[in-house]
UniProtKB/TrEMBL annotation:
This is Methanogenic corrinoid protein MtbC1. It comes from the Bacteria. InterPro entries: Cbl-bd_cap, Cobalamin-bd, Cobalamin-bd_sf, Globin-like_sf, Met_Synthase/Corrinoid, Meth_synthase_dom. Gene3D superfamilies: Cobalamin-binding domain (3.40.50.280), Methionine synthase domain (1.10.1240.10). Residues 100-226 form the B12-binding domain. GO terms for molecular function: cobalamin binding; metal ion binding; methionine synthase activity. SUPFAM superfamilies: Cobalamin (vitamin B12)-binding domain, Globin-like. GO terms for biological process: homocysteine metabolic process; tetrahydrofolate metabolic process.
Length: 347
């Protein structure tokens, strides 16, 4: 690392730097990863760029490697832990006195992907905010208690998986009832954050940099019509949620009859199949909650890629969808969403 400080190393090839950092993550070399990032910082690379471009870029690759079945869950988790350690080491080298306001940052109840919100927390600290970072899986009542105790100017809520949208809606509603505006983030809110306003959020940001810009000017935004998010989750959503265990267990029994290969599965494979069935029901429920078929079809497309990378033929997922659909013949919207997923697999 002998690049002169006058020309930051990042300016040469960020893709190569990501490859180098990713290799350190894959090898479990925490010391090397911390050393690499701190040296880049000392050479003049802005900490924001190291957080977003290098750490964030490498973490995206980590997720892709898991999806392609090239990395195990354990290796992915180890890499994420190192990225968190590197981010903390970088944050310790920066010191900006708060001069804007106070922001609470949290993942919604059931959301465990905390690294993106931690990156947002550090980005906002660098921009002069006083930050309360609450981390992953924050129950709504605990979040509201914290708001009453600290009185922040804004809450930043993250939802990375669409199945958490009903809980995100509850958290947003509770925050606004406490008088605190909400900025939402995370791909769980859909392309362009299309579900965020529908759930009552005051704003949405595609990433940490956009969130920093949104909060730095014209905040809080004008209050929206509360009727936009007043009525979500109809009787079909309620039925699917209440009958979730039965839908899953019945689908597993029917799957054994219609897809004989399941009879040869070992216990680990059966557990994975049951988990996939649970995902089908949960994503269907989320799609019903906001009446958005794309939530379900996006899930089907992604799951198909992941299963094929693990040697599971597409027919297995299709049969799984059909077994759930057979149980919901009296529910037209749910049936249409499942039919759309099946059609996607047939194309």
């Amino acid at each position: 690392m002998s690049v002169p400080s006058a020309v930051p190393r990042r300016s040469y090839d960020i893709a190569a730097l990501i490859d180098e950092f990713l290799q350190l993550l894959g090898e479990g070399d925490e010391y090397g990863a911390v050393e690499m990032v701190t040296e880049l910082y000392e050479e003049g690379v802005p900490p924001q760029r190291l957080m977003i471009d290098l750490i964030g870029g490498a973490q995206t690759r980590v997720g892709e490697l898991w999806a392609a079945n090239e990395w195990t869950v354990a290796r992915e988790h180890a890499a994420t832990a190192i990225s968190e350690r590197v981010l903390a080491a970088l944050a310790a080298r920066t010191n900006v006195r708060p001069y804007r306001g106070r922001v609470t940052i949290a993942c919604v109840d059931g959301e465990w992907h905390a690294l993106p919100t931690r990156m947002l927390a550090e980005m906002l600290r660098l921009d002069g905010w006083r930050v309360d970072f609450l981390g992953a899986n924050v129950p709504g009542p605990h979040l509201v208690t914290h708001l009453h105790q600290t009185g922040p100017d804004v809450v930043a809520l993250s939802c990375m998986i669409a199945t958490r949208l009903p809980r995100a809606h509850a958290a947003i509603t509770a925050c606004k009832a406490a008088g605190v505006p909400v900025i939402a983030g995370g791909r769980g809110f859909g392309p362009g954050g299309r579900y965020a306003q529908h759930l009552g959020a005051d704003a949405w940001a595609a990433g940490a940099e956009e969130a920093v810009r949104r909060l730095a000017r014209n905040w809080p935004p004008h209050n929206q019509d509360p009727q936009l998010s007043a009525y979500l989750g109809d009787e079909e959503y309620t039925y699917v949620v209440r009958h979730r265990p039965v839908l899953i267990s019945t689908a597993m029994r029917q799957l054994t009859d219609t897809y004989p290969a399941v009879r040869e599965y070992n216990q680990r494979q059966l557990d994975s199949t049951a988990e996939d069935m649970a995902h089908i029901v949960d994503f269907l429920a989320a799609a019903l909650y906001v009446n958005e078929t794309q939530i379900f079809t996006d899930f089907v497309a992604w799951t198909d890629e992941v299963l094929q990378a693990r040697g599971v033929p597409p027919v297995a997922l299709r049969v799984g969808l059909e077994t759930v659909r057979a149980q919901l013949h009296d529910y037209p919207t749910a049936g249409a969403m499942l039919a759309a997923g099946i059609q996607l697999l047939n194309e």
